[in-house]
Predict the 3D structure of the following.
Amino acid sequence: MVKSELMKYSCPLGKAMSALGSKWKPIIVLVIKDRKLRFGELAVRINVISRKVLTDQLKEMQNDGLIIREEFKELPPRVEYSLTEKGLALLPILYLLEEWEAKFDNKEVQYDKDCNVLDSKMKKAAEA
């Protein structure tokens, strides 16, 4: 279902899913947490997302009131992203989803602290 179609409904769950409907938005929220991060830092921490998709997701999240984009007028230009009060309120919900998944997790796949998927071979290489 397209985001504009979801927004037509007055159902709170429909509105929430339209704001968080992509697979990347919850991950972006979990990576930002209660700190400010620059675009490059986000791109490094979520290394499996293209920069274009990350840019698009951040714009949508800003429009949905989940993140604040703060521009600094300096050379070179600097932009920082942080969560709004609405975005911060998602953290406990997303932590519960993490716990739910961990309960039924496939032990073959391991994750690092910022949700990057590391299979067994990659984890051994990263530890070396």
Notes: Residues 117-128 have pLDDT under 50 and may be disordered.
